[in-house]
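Quick illustration, no need to memorize.
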Amino acid sequence: MEASLKIYTDGGCSGNPGPGGWAYIMVQETFQGEKIIASNLGGEKETTNNRMELTAVIESLRALKIMDNVPQQAAVCTDSQYVQKGITEWIVTWKRNSWRTSDKKPVKNKDLWVELDSIAGELMLKHELKWEWVRGHSGNEYNERCDSMTQDAIASVLG
């Protein structure tokens, strides 16, 4: 599937844990070229990098859920292998094992994984979602913009 809607997400922290930020940008392919149709960012005073990566994806999917006239095929582009592998590979086993990892420890950030699983499941009724890992800090325009927005969100939390 070649998605005509790409959702770029990023999250990060200043210290881990520490003040954190998240951001997303939705880019739609049109016959005239790429068009940003939505973006947002936010932050928290005390969090972790992985929580912010997950929050960026959750917030982008919440926005997608209420949008009209958007392509049914969408690719979520994250530079977090934790998010990409978690939602495409690990989550099936975690759920089967009552939210425990292979070494029987509780899954970290379970609250966010449950929320992501739920919202992604709802969206799959209307959208075909693809999960893509993109290398961070490697010149991808929208990943770099999300990173910059994430830094702005962290700065706003720091005051």
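The first strand starts at residue 5 and ends at 13.
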